Amino acid sequence: MKLEVSGLNSHYGPAHILFDVGFEVGAGEVVALLGRNGAGKSTTFRSIVGLVSQRTGQIRFEGEDVSRLPTYDIVRRGLGYVPEDRRVFTELTVEENFVVGRQPARPGVATWTPERIYELFPNLGEMRKRPGGQMSGGEQQMLTIGRTLMGNPSLVLLDEPSEGLAPKIVEQMADAILTMKREGLSIVISEQNLHFAKLISDRAYIIEKGRMRFSGTMAELEANPEIRDAYLAV
Amino acid sequence: MEFLLVQALSGLSSAASLFLVASGLSIIFGVMRIVNFAHGAFYMLGAYVAFTLTDRFSGPLGFWGGILVACLIVSVVGALMEMLLLRRIYHAPELFQLLATFGVTLMVQDIVLLIWGPEDLMGPRAPGFTGAIELLGRRVPTYDLLLIGLGPLVLGLLWLLFHGTRWGVLVRAATQDRDMVAALGVNQKWLFTSVFALGVFLAALGGALQIPRTTVSHAMDLSIIVEVFVVVVIGGLGSVPGAFVAAVLVSELNAFGILVLPKISMVVVFLVMAVVLVVRPWGLFGKPEGTPRAAAGLSIRPWKPMSGVERMLVALAVVAAAALPLFAGNYVLSVSTEILVFVLFAASLHFLMTVGGLASFGHAAYFGLGAYGAAFMVKYLGAPMELALLAGPLLGLAGAVLFGWFCVRLSGVYFAMLTLAFAQIAWSVAFQWVEVTGGDNGMLSIWPSSWASSPQAFFWLTLGIVAVGVGVLRMLVFSPFGFGLRAARDSSLRSEAIGINRKSTQWVAFIVAGTFAGVAGSLLAFLKGSVFPENLAIPTSVDGLVMVLLGGIETVSGAVIGAIVYKALAIWLMSKTELSKLILGATIVLLVVAFPKGIVGFLEDLRHRLKPPRQNGAKPEAALVAKAEAAE
């Protein structure tokens, strides 16, 4: 297994957010983490990379327990994280944003350069010197994914990459994610948009109120519309 | 005309060092969100170490090499301070960070005195830049011209560093979003240490470059830090170009202000700063901060009115204090009266800091103004003590009305820096306006009326006024005004949404605190029979902060107990050692790192640990909320 999470409990102050969350991702797999707004998807990702300080449980990445490591160390082992709110560095240009994400090449993992990312997201190639703050939402989303890829990760946590984007950009995003998958990356993608998740994912987990409610293949989820209605329908 | 040009050049050459120090402070703040009070100390250390090295190794290589090596040595010292001290307090409230770095400043002052002695030192001239050239018939030192060129050169080098290297790009990214930088695999610890070392290097360079121009003295640190605070408030914290523009502006204002108002040239700078703050509170090149976070934010347990038993204990304590003159001697009584005066001063600062969430670093201004107010009444109007005690604090009130109006426009570190700058301005007026205030010689013979002239009577008078004052301050905490003030402190947006005018509420709190400090100051004037500029100087302000911190910032009783313990210790220490600043500084650092909740907070924690709260109370939960808030 690429990533194994088990018994994950997280708190924000007095509020208990995640209850014994567990899931697995195999090498080269694309796994969807589905759930409504506020279900705990972002907190799960933030907990895995150590941005939520009050957390307990086991997080094994490539067989090693990383739950006690500082954020930068977890990321340097090849666990990339793309945050939900994008958080591009608005003062920095596209190129400079990539410089921040740059890490040495990793054996056995696809190596990314700015040129390769411009191939993945041609829009970015046309605005290399533009500050992140002067880009559209879709372009910022591409930038933040590209920035994480510059760290040559072997697994990427993608937090709601389709959120708030125009349908055309969403399609482009799905293509890019499939390209990343072909490169051998493992991907965990959190989504509220089931349609988008279906385009790219092999398996899915459903989280609701901080607990895992379902785990199975996309086909199994398809075959059980009552689960979808109970946990995902608006 | 020629004269004005020369004056302008002289201003520009002073701007160079100011810019170096201010840019270092700004870079550090941008990434680490810490206002490094010790920056002035590093500036001074740079000058002293450079003096020793250039004195030892002569010649151009000795001089310029000596300056460079001095800056490197000082920046290593800075990096050590970051690793040993600052790393422990990154998540502490801003007030603690300011206090800890101020503690280091105090320690450095005594260390400098120990190593280099009290005399001002005269360094060598810079080889190759000893002469002067004729410019429009006037002689301008070539070294000044070198400094004028150096400012833009350093600005350019810094720009290249931040835009042309990966390290610089990381620093700029971290200035915006530290967590995201870590989430991209960057080790913040290393980044912070290197940024701090660079900032300290710039401060040390600013100091080292001063040695051919002026003597090296142990008062360099506080004088530069106040100017630097003014510069970064005008230019905008975190902006290097802002530091450059504001350094030039402030230096030119100083150079020409001397021509307009030779006695109080600081006033010109102050006026410009006031205008900038009204138009752009975040400075010329700064960016508006998000919602201000609470300055104190450590109140783990909610305040509640006293229980019957506690009221009894307080009454007993007052009665016990009132009985003191029956058996204590004159010396003990006068020391006790002084302690009482500082109890009121600390309580007024505590009100502003914890109830209002406004950590003032210049509260002594209103204390000192109250003292001068009483002295003016006696000296110029021949008023008796009773009238002077009533009217004197009005000067403190007036100062708080004026300065407070500007200060409450800011929050957090900006607020702290501005209060400090105002206090320093008040100090420099008292110090320089010799005709009115007597300058350094102070004002003497401010004696109480005959009925209160015995130590016993004056003690009782002080005890009465202080007890009433502290009582009123505590009542205010639980008044509707106090609730509004606490709401504005905890969430300015939410409180404004329910109709509380944050600025005017905080302004009133500022005035209340200033007035009570003024009452304390007036009492001190009659206790000592004299008034000096030191009454409103920075060390007095910091004394107040340490008292509140020592006692514990959570409760009014903390301020009272802190004042008693601190003042008694300070008076005792002064009589025992020459190195009082070193010990005081070390105490502050230790307090901040090891006992951030102070004596009363520590005792309360102990009580709660020994006797856990009952099941029906919601206390543990409330504690968690507060902890979470403090952590944010």
From TrEMBL, chain A:
<comment type="similarity">
    <text>Belongs to the ABC transporter superfamily.</text>
</comment>
<keyword id="KW-0813">Transport</keyword>
<dbReference type="InterPro" id="IPR017871">
    <property type="entry name" value="ABC_transporter-like_CS"/>
</dbReference>
<dbReference type="GO" id="GO:0015807">
    <property type="term" value="P:L-amino acid transport"/>
</dbReference>
<dbReference type="InterPro" id="IPR052156">
    <property type="entry name" value="BCAA_Transport_ATP-bd_LivF"/>
</dbReference>
<protein>
    <submittedName>
        <fullName>ABC transporter ATP-binding protein</fullName>
    </submittedName>
</protein>
<feature type="domain" description="ABC transporter">
    <location>
        <begin position="3"/>
        <end position="234"/>
    </location>
</feature>
<dbReference type="InterPro" id="IPR003439">
    <property type="entry name" value="ABC_transporter-like_ATP-bd"/>
</dbReference>
<dbReference type="GO" id="GO:0015658">
    <property type="term" value="F:branched-chain amino acid transmembrane transporter activity"/>
</dbReference>
<keyword id="KW-0067">ATP-binding</keyword>
<keyword id="KW-0547">Nucleotide-binding</keyword>
<dbReference type="GO" id="GO:0016887">
    <property type="term" value="F:ATP hydrolysis activity"/>
</dbReference>
<dbReference type="GO" id="GO:0005524">
    <property type="term" value="F:ATP binding"/>
</dbReference>
<keyword id="KW-0029">Amino-acid transport</keyword>
<dbReference type="Pfam" id="PF00005">
    <property type="entry name" value="ABC_tran"/>
</dbReference>
<dbReference type="InterPro" id="IPR003593">
    <property type="entry name" value="AAA+_ATPase"/>
</dbReference>
<dbReference type="InterPro" id="IPR027417">
    <property type="entry name" value="P-loop_NTPase"/>
</dbReference>
From TrEMBL, chain B:
<dbReference type="GO" id="GO:0015658">
    <property type="term" value="F:branched-chain amino acid transmembrane transporter activity"/>
</dbReference>
<keyword id="KW-0813">Transport</keyword>
<protein>
    <submittedName>
        <fullName>ABC transporter permease</fullName>
    </submittedName>
</protein>
<keyword id="KW-1133">Transmembrane helix</keyword>
<feature type="transmembrane region" description="Helical">
    <location>
        <begin position="413"/>
        <end position="434"/>
    </location>
</feature>
<feature type="transmembrane region" description="Helical">
    <location>
        <begin position="506"/>
        <end position="527"/>
    </location>
</feature>
<feature type="transmembrane region" description="Helical">
    <location>
        <begin position="457"/>
        <end position="485"/>
    </location>
</feature>
<feature type="transmembrane region" description="Helical">
    <location>
        <begin position="387"/>
        <end position="406"/>
    </location>
</feature>
<feature type="transmembrane region" description="Helical">
    <location>
        <begin position="190"/>
        <end position="212"/>
    </location>
</feature>
<feature type="transmembrane region" description="Helical">
    <location>
        <begin position="547"/>
        <end position="570"/>
    </location>
</feature>
<dbReference type="Pfam" id="PF02653">
    <property type="entry name" value="BPD_transp_2"/>
</dbReference>
<dbReference type="GO" id="GO:0005886">
    <property type="term" value="C:plasma membrane"/>
</dbReference>
<feature type="transmembrane region" description="Helical">
    <location>
        <begin position="256"/>
        <end position="279"/>
    </location>
</feature>
<dbReference type="GO" id="GO:0006865">
    <property type="term" value="P:amino acid transport"/>
</dbReference>
<dbReference type="InterPro" id="IPR001851">
    <property type="entry name" value="ABC_transp_permease"/>
</dbReference>
<keyword id="KW-0029">Amino-acid transport</keyword>
<comment type="similarity">
    <text>Belongs to the binding-protein-dependent transport system permease family. LivHM subfamily.</text>
</comment>
<keyword id="KW-0472">Membrane</keyword>
<feature type="transmembrane region" description="Helical">
    <location>
        <begin position="145"/>
        <end position="162"/>
    </location>
</feature>
<feature type="transmembrane region" description="Helical">
    <location>
        <begin position="339"/>
        <end position="359"/>
    </location>
</feature>
<feature type="transmembrane region" description="Helical">
    <location>
        <begin position="25"/>
        <end position="51"/>
    </location>
</feature>
<feature type="transmembrane region" description="Helical">
    <location>
        <begin position="224"/>
        <end position="250"/>
    </location>
</feature>
